[in-house]
Amino acid sequence: MLDDEIVKNLLSRIFGLFSEQDETTVVPLSKSQRGSITHIIILDGTLSRLDKGYETNAGLAYLLLKEATTKNTTSLYYEPGLQWKHWGGALRVMTGSGLADQIRRAYGAIASRYRPGDRIIFLGYSRGAFAVRSLAGAIDLIGLVKAEHATERNIKQAWRLYRDGPNTKAAKAFAAAYCHEAAPIEMMGVWETVKSLGIVLPFFWRLSQPKYAFHNDQLGKSIANGFHALAIDERRVAFSPVLWRCPPNWQGHLEQVWFKGVHGDIGGHVDDFADARPLANIPLVWMLERLEMCGVDLPENWRASYPQDVSAPSLGMNRSFGKFFWMRRRRIIGQDISEAKHASLDITVLAPDKSQGLLHRFFRPQRRE
Question: How many CB atoms lie within 10 A of CB 131?
Fold first, then answer.
């Protein structure tokens, strides 16, 4: 029988996918007198990592925010997607079965820090995008547990109530006893939310769709602004996107924007194919601009670090084992009034000082007090 490490190394060489990194990163708050805090939660895609040159767009956003973070005004939490650490973890990676744990950890992190008057911002890529959307759904339907009640037991109970039915008497009693009356979410920013929640491999991707029907990944009343970057060239059914739908009477602002490229291009999951990075930077810069518009401070001249070129090569759908995803069809565009094509689709090269405001020049972010 093959040793676990041998099997892992063999598969690592075949797929070029597996990483050891699985540590959550938290930027601590200052111990000085506390004012209003902006809480930013970032959940990355499966097998993401922060190694130099291998960061996704979610990872790059985290590193930039970490550079800009003022510890007495910003709470920053980053968690990579599910990682391959041993042969026994293969099924968890393939099926995305650690999704609930990831959401609970993020829920606990923000519950233990949030105070009335603070701001909340969620960012996510791929499986992490689904996770932050579901996290927002849990807060919207159950509530956010107050810091003084944010015990492991109460966090687990909040999750059970979310899973089993948020409209029950038990859920309402729990919210009244332990949760804030409101916890507004200033911004939800996601790259390529997909249906397949685990690692997507040929012939195995259907394993990554277990019973997640209870997750509420749509826009709730607590969300002020939603931004979704989507791949216009992706055809693989395994990467089918989960778009938002504007709910009736929702008062927020929503932009779902289509960019040139496939799933990995939009999420910046280019790994060692550095030539695709200038293309991946376009949806990255777009999202970072939305953060600024929602009041998040970024370092001066930050755009210069992310050169954009819509003519840069795409990862494509046939690299490595991509060619074996035989089920393909064009994505349907224009199902919701919030959808638009990014202006870069008609531009060859975006200069760093010319990229701002390419889309929705009328943008006015919704602010929740």
Answer: 32
DSSP code for 331: P
Q: Contact 236/327 with Cβ under 8 angstroms?
A: yes
pLDDT in tens, 301-349: 999 999 999 999 999 765 665 555 657 788 889 988 999 999 998 754 4
Q: Specify if 176 maps to a domain.
A: yes
The residue segments making up the domain with residue 114 are: 4-350
Residue 363 resides in a domain = no
Q: Classify residue 56: in a domain, yes or no.
A: yes
Class of residue 202 by CB neighbours under 10 A (exposed 0-12, middle 13-18, buried 19+): middle
- Burial bucket for residue 360 (CB in 10 Å: 0-12, 13-18, 19+): middle
Tally of domains within the chain: 1
Tell me, what's the pLDDT at 293? 96
Closest Cα to residue 26, out of 80, 100, 98? 80
pLDDT value, residue 203: 44
Decide the pairing of beta strands 308-309 and 349-350.
antiparallel
Please provide the average confidence, as pLDDT, over all residues in the chain: 81
Higher pLDDT, 248 or 182: 182
Q: What CATH number did the domain enclosing 154 receive?
A: 3.40.50.1820
pLDDT band at 75 (very low <50, low <70, confident <90, very high): very high
- Residue 78 bridge partners (DSSP): 25, 42
Residue 167 and residue 20: Cα distance in Å, rounded?
Answer: 40
More confident residue, 24 or 287: 287
**∠146-148-151 over CA atoms, to 5°?**
90
Give the CA distances from residue 325 to residues 107, 125, 168, 320, in Å, rounded to whole numbers and listed in that order: 35, 21, 42, 11
Q: Is 329 domain-assigned?
A: yes
- 17-42 per-position pLDDT tens digit: 334 444 577 766 655 567 899 999 99
- In angstroms, rounded to a whole number, what is the distance separating the alpha carbons of residues 208 and 91? 9
Contacts of 5 (CB under 8 A, 6+ apart): none
298, 64 contact by CB (below 8 A): yes
- Phi, psi for 96 (deg, rounded to 5): 70, 30
